[in-house]
Each structure stands twice: as C-alpha cells, then as structure tokens.
Amino acid sequence: MKEQLESIKQEALGRIVSADELKELQEIKVAYLGKKGSLTSVLRGMGKLSKEERPLIGELANQVREEITTALEEKGQKLEELALEKQLEEEAIDVTLPGRPVEVGGEHLLTKIVEEIEDLFIGMGYEVREGPEVETDYYNFEALNLPKGHPARDMQDTFYITNELLMRTHTSPVQARTMKEFDGDQSVKMICPGKVYRRDTDDATHSHQFTQIEGLYVGKDVRMSDLKGTLDQFAKKMFGKDREIRLRPSFFPFTEPSVEMDISCKVCNGQGCSVCKGTGWIEILGAGMVHPNVLEMAGYDPKEYTGFAFGMGPERIAMLKYGVNDIRQFYTNDKRFLEQYHNA
C-alpha cells in the first residue's frame, strides 16, 4: 500500500505541475482527493491491514494528502496571478489618448422661464406654493365662484376622474387652498406654478397639458393700481424695459372687475406687424380683483380684505420672448430645439 500511495502522490504532483488552468486544478483535486478519488479509495482498504500497519499507513496517507493539497494551493495562486496579469494586459488603458467628450445638458427652456418668473416675484415678496394636480371639484370650481351648472365651466374642457375628482384645469385651486389655510385672518402673497390639464386638440398653439403660473395678493387696502404696477414690473423684467402694457376689460368668474393684459409688440414697437396682427399689442395674461364671493368662501371678510389675482402661461411667454412658433416643440425632447436655449 506504501508503493500505491507513493505512486498516487507522484502522479498527482506531476499533473499539478503541468496544469495551466484553474479548471484543470479543480479536476485534479476531485480525481485524487474527492469522495471517489484515488487516495480515498486506497484509504478505504485500510481495514484489511494489521493493527501494526494501520498507524503507519494512516500517517503516510495524511502526508500524501497534505502534499497534494499544498501543491494545489500553490499552483492555484500562481495561475490566479497569471490570469490577473493577462487581464490587466488585455484591458490596459492608454492614458495618453484623448478622452471622449461628455455632453453637458442644460435646463429646459420652460424650466428657465418658470424659474425666472419665480425669482421675479420672490423679489417682490411673493411665496411659491404648490398643490395637487388631481383636484376636487370644490377647489377647482366651487371655491372659485363656479358652482355646479355654471356656464363658464364649459370653457374649461375638464378631464373628470369621478363626479368629484378631476385633473385641475388651472392652478387657481392652490390659491383657494392657501386662503382656506390662512383662515381669513392674515395677508396672502403667493404664486403657484404647475401643470394643468384640459381636453383640447394639440396643435401649434394648444396642448392638452400645459403649464400655468397664477399669482394672488390678498390684504387690506389692495387696489387695482397695485395690480397694474405689479404687472407693469413683470412685463418690463421679462420682455425689456421699453415694453408698455394695457389692460382691457374681460370676464372671469373669480375676479371682478376682470382684465386681459397686453404688452406692446417688441417686433414693431407698437407700430403694427404680422406678429401682433397689425394692432401693436400682444395678449399675455388675464387678471383682476378677487371676487368678494371667493374671499368669503375662503373665510375672508370682503369688507375688510381685498385682493388681486393673475394667471399666465409660461409656454406663451417663452414663445413670445424667444420666437418659438409651435408649443409642441417644448414636449418633443428634440435635442436640436432644446440645445438652442442652453445659454438663453
């Protein structure tokens, strides 16, 4: 049995020396040291040996196992080192080569416009507020002096989810929620930017989903002249100090009196051209004094508090300011369009 153990050792060590893959080493280990391996088979025959031979053969078998195991570990380590060197050589990077250029993105044009408007009104003491896009019928309509059955609701083209839940058609519900939160005993000065939704056919000037920024100022002795001064300041900051504004009578259920605001055409400076359709003016937003009913429903005493509200569309402002002729370009993610305004 000694000769058999020595033969197994020499054979195993020889195969280990010539092995050049880790997978081959594993096969050698199984062949000699596994449950069905050569060394294990020899050890199973130890029961036939005499009591005197068993300890000697057992000691020799352990030495053989230890030598084979040590040889496997040493060769395995060498093969791993060689594999790592080969991998590093194959994956070597030439640091002298020029790097691949990384394209740096920029803010979306609408984001720029919204943030510019926010900064302008924050500078005038306004707070930026947000509200849910899935809104209740009460805050979207009833709290804004649009009771159920009011004909002006038809103008909104609403996406209804249930009889009482809908996709908000304007950001005015945020104004109603804020006034309700203040419980009629303190002033409100806020703007509320956000997405709104209306059933509309998408074309160059219309979209079923667009952005609005609405503003509200409620306090004691707030007058129409305050509204005009605020809008004049807004127009000059957004479109240039030479821009003039005019207010035309209009109708909105939640304001009384209501006005549409026009700015003088920057293309022709008010002389009349194709952009302003020969009038010299371009409509930009709607506004008015907060209706007493709206104040009362929010908990404010209309005899003590007054206020004004206005609403504008950032898409329209961007189109006028940068000469964009199709609202759909804001939402198509066309890099050729977006890259034009990275440094706008």
Automatic annotation (TrEMBL):
This protein's source sits in the domain of life called Bacteria
Where does this polypeptide localize?
Answer: Cytoplasm
EC nos: 6.1.1.20
Q: Which residues form a coiled coil?
A: 65-92
Q: What class of enzyme is it?
A: ligase
Main location as per UniProt: cytoplasm
Which keywords has UniProt assigned to this entry? Aminoacyl-tRNA synthetase, ATP-binding, Coiled coil, Cytoplasm, Ligase, Magnesium, Metal-binding, Nucleotide-binding, Protein biosynthesis
The prosthetic group or cofactor this protein requires is: Mg(2+)
Q: Which reaction does it catalyse?
A: tRNA(Phe) + L-phenylalanine + ATP = L-phenylalanyl-tRNA(Phe) + AMP + diphosphate + H(+)
Any one GO molecular-function label of the UniProt entry: phenylalanine-tRNA ligase activity
Q: For this protein, what does the record note about how its cofactor is bound? A: Binds 2 magnesium ions per tetramer.
Q: Which residues bind Mg(2+)?
A: 256
Aminoacyl-transfer RNA synthetases class-II family profile domain boundaries: 109-339
Q: Does the keyword Magnesium apply?
A: yes
Per UniProt, subunit arrangement is:
Tetramer of two alpha and two beta subunits.
The similarity annotation says: Belongs to the class-II aminoacyl-tRNA synthetase family. Phe-tRNA synthetase alpha subunit type 1 subfamily.
- Protein known as: Phenylalanine--tRNA ligase alpha subunit
Q: Organism source for this protein? A: Oceanobacillus kapialis
> What gene does the UniProt entry assign to this protein?
pheS
